[in-house]
Amino acid sequence: MKFVKMHGIGNDFILVNGFKEQMPPNIPLTAQNLCDRHFGIGADGLVFLLPSEKADIRMRYFNSDGSEGEMCGNAIRCFAKYAFEEGLVHKESFTVETLAGVMLPRLVLQDGKVTAVTVNMGKPSLDRDKVPMSGSAGQALNEPLRVLDTVFYVTALLLGVPHCVIFVDDVEGIDLGKYGPAIEYHPAFPRKTNVHFIEVLNEHEMKMRVWERGAGLTLACGTGACASLVAAVLNNKTGRKAKIHLPGGTLDIEWALNNHVYMTGPAQTVFAGEVKDVSLIK
Question: Which residue positions does UniProt flag as site: Could be important to modulate the pK values of the two catalytic cysteine residues (predicted)?
């Protein structure tokens, strides 16, 4: 099975052209083994490019723990760049079928090369029943949540996948390895959640650290950056457009007046290779 390794500001993925390559019989196990950073290739997720009956192309995304994700913001930028460069699509703007709905990436080209990708990530769902998050009906906005030995004030929303956003004074002072998994698996989130700690620098900039559902500590989360901007606007902390600084790099996010969230950022190809045994049983 041939593959390419790509990353979006440090959030790294294995991409497989499903138009040419045969799908492995046990995709969750394949994702776990290929994403293993010691016994496999190493990545935060495994991505398949496939034909679609409702869009120009289809994306299936699997986290490093083998679970299938509805969508991934950094992965879809890599997906869009690879699809264009491999000739699977021939337009600068096209539709991608995902489990979170049809997404709309638009390529930023310079001299015929993809330098960045802007993605219309759709509309955020603020109703806690949609996230989902337990509790009374309505929005979960700056709501206290006891986690281990601490009470955090959280804002929860759905943007492709569930997100829990927490604003803090010093994002580097948070023990993400301790609180990240505790919030991801918190009983308040029946389908688990992505966890984002945010330090607001000014009206147009934020600093962010991520604990991703199904992947753990990562250098970036595209959907999470989008969700964090929405949460910041709802909590009157920033304007509707901001730069989100993550450990792996910076994303430009805008929550437009049409209620759609737009993400712009780079995608980089690292290397290409071939897996001789897709089972890679350790």
Answer: 163, 212
Are 9 and 266 contacting, i.e. CB atoms less than 8 angstroms apart? Answer: yes
Q: Contact at 8 Å (CB) between 2 and 272?
A: yes
* Annotated catalytic residue within 72, 78, 164, 226: 72
35 is a catalytic site residue:
no
Q: Which residues are annotated as a binding site for substrate?
A: 11, 63, 73-74, 194, 212-213, 222-223
Residue 212, both tokens: 């991703």
Active site residue 221: yes
Q: Name residue, tokens 């045994």.
A: 277
CATH architecture of the domain 2-118+266-274 equals Roll (3.10)
User: Is 112 a residue whose pLDDT tops 90?
Assistant: no
Q: How confident is residue 277, by pLDDT bands cut at 50, 70 and 90?
A: confident
| Superfamily of segment(s) 140-259 | Diaminopimelate Epimerase; Chain A, domain 1 (3.10.310.10)
Residue 278 reports pLDDT greater than 80: no
